[in-house]
Amino acid sequence: VESSIPEHMREAWKKFSPTGFNSKETFQKEAVRHIETTLARSLYNCDEGAAYSGVALAFRDRLIMDWNKTQQRQTFADQKRIYYLSLEFLMGRALDNAMLNVGLKTVAKDGLAELGFRIEDVIQQEHDAALGNGGLGRLAACFLDSMASLNYAAWGYGLRYRYGIFKQEIENGYQVEIPDYWLDSNYWEFPRYDVTVDIQFYGWVNKYTDENGKQIVSWQDGEIVTAVAYDVPIPGYGTATVNNLRLWNSKASSGEFDFAKFNSGEYESAVADEQRAESISAVLYPNDNMERGKELRLKQQYFWCAASLHDIVRRFKKSKRPWKDFPDQVAIQLNDTHPTLAIVELQRILIDIEGLGWDDAWDIVTKTFGYTNHTVLPEALEKWSVPLIQHLLPRHLEIIYEINLHFLQQVERRFPKDRDMLGRVSVVEESQPKMIRMAYLAIIGSHKVNGVAELHSDLIKTTIFKDFVKIYGPDKFTNVTNGITPRRWLHQANPRLSELIASKLGSYEFLKDLTLLNKLEGFVDDKEFKKEWQEIKYANKVRLAQHIMAATGISVNPKALFDVQVKRMHEYKRQQLNIFGVIHRYLAIKAMSADERKKLAPRVSIFGGKAAPGYWMAKTIIHLINKVGDVVNNDKDVGDLLKVVFIPDYNVSKAEIIIPASDISEHISTAGTEASGTSNMKFVLNGGLVIGTLDGANIEITREIGEQNVFLFGNLSEDVEDLRHNHFYGNHQIDPELVKVFDTIKSGTFGDAGAFSSLVGAIADHGDYYLVSDDFNSYCKTQDLIDETYKNQEEWISKSITSVARMGFFTSDRCINEYADSIWNIEPLQVKEEAEVRART
Length: 841
Ligand code: 8GP
Prior knowledge:
3 domains, alpha/beta
């Protein structure tokens, strides 16, 4: 391609292509130029918002050059690419990350200071990109960071929601949802108006035999909506690789634009059609670990899958390779079942459009896809009703039935005597109406299925997907324990800790190879080091205390033990266990003598997290936390000994403030319910200790950092079934201390008891599905142990340092390398520019 352009033209381009900045002066020049020309502002009306814009635009220019080169390099290399399909990318802010990844944060900091701005204030002007709910979406964001940092040729594909996850406000203790319009002043996306795909919905299937006797199947009529690509650059850390995240935006197809309506005066209805098309990518569904079966959600899924596949196929076809090579060029990873229709769509493209036979096509499909499962909760497993799919995607339903038929025939041949098996594993659930089980379709259409932590990967093999292990054998199922990017979750969120670590290890190389942290173990007895370690934690707590004051008006003492539980609100995550524990502590303090109170370690219980707008019980838990806070925080008997805080609107940028400030964080799900958890890793990496159940990645964290460094409690996953059984048959006595907590709530201490009766009732009278009462006693005892341990700060800090030193395994770089090896069969693309050493600040 390059040589097809005449030498003199190439010379002219090279001469004028921008070089970007790499010094303070050149940075300032670029930022000021953008403020004065791109934004039409000046010295006299440049506020922090405008300063942010100028800096973002300057860094964006820098990224674009590497981004263009990366895309060219990947095209020329013509090797296999990874496509990560996710309906959620919880990216958070981009500027700080961009500055650190290109190694020019110090340059920007000094440059801004001279221009009259503090870099921290400027960074805070940015609105979070919050295109996700929780763990699943943030994992996708960490994976993008790792794939770019490791130089993999990888693309993310998602939807460009106009509204991300709602903003949460708290009014009178209740959650209120505010729309999150985030696209104003967003400098990190590039509309590609020339990259569009027309997506079809509804219509009917026409089958006929052509003049050569060939069966032709065509999907006709219906409605067309256009997908427009918006590209977001994803910079790697300390490398010149900048990958691409492509988000699709929906708009009315220009072919559909109804001039007849305009001319006949039906202006309003013509506009309504436009709005209907735009509604597809308008809003992120705000459910975490819960599916709701709405038609618009299915439309989103197909719209995004079809646009992405079209793009991938178009890129493949440029290489002029035969179809059988497709899986050598393309690996598609399905982030949960949301993109499962991509399997059906690729089969449709191959047989209906490209004219391949069924078996050849299916062979290509299954070699291309891998499926990651993120939950075993039944309410989160996707099913779509057959009539809905029939209506929206008539040809896809036929193909799904055909996939199922081939599959069931194969099962019948292998297990001729097991009639029940066919009904159990069928993609079609024989309910009223019939439902398509998306997870089964995803398994059948993929060559590998993985869970996200060891326990979870074992559980899917022995419970929800047990029959499929019999059918395909165990090798199709594998584990890739989740990880987090240390760039954002250590270096960016906790710069002082990162710097201290670098000073001991001699460089920032640990950010690329996190196992190097183990050298910190050599410093656990270094007095000076321990003091600095403690000071940094304290400074982070001061910063959080300031945030708490600004956000809630509650004053907390940074010397108290900060006990944090921040994550989506869900009964299985058991924030109710935590707040019942807080009430128990409150009652204990009230009953203490003044002398006893003096011996108690002061504590701040910090909560944060959003509830799905339709999840009543989760909202009730938020309400209770706030009401308990109102009482406890104003009780003179209690003073500083206990404060209860609910931080509103937990999101990625708040996590960056909260996580480095925790002494203890809570990961207390009912054993067997939290697939992995990833905030557990973030907290430990920032020197916090954890209280947790033997669930998800807690188990592997414990294995790595040592049992003596984790506060474990509660029942084991293997006992859950029996315990539930006991509740069901009334063989269970609720712990008397928990009864006291319930009585306090019922007495109206925290306001109208009726508001909490369903919450208490679910545990006391309705089977206690999440086994709160079974774990309550052990939870409280473990909290007491935490109080005792915290009193010995020397020991506490040693635990903290040792834990950080042993966290190397939990980098998302390790995850991505595992996916690359065991699922994608892909190697990184070497980057020459990497040799140009990048400053790492
Ligand atoms: C989450 C899991 O709950 C969490 O344990 C895990 O760390 C995270 O995924 C990343 O693997 N799962 C979901 O958010 C989830 O399943 N969401 C909806 C698809 C139902």
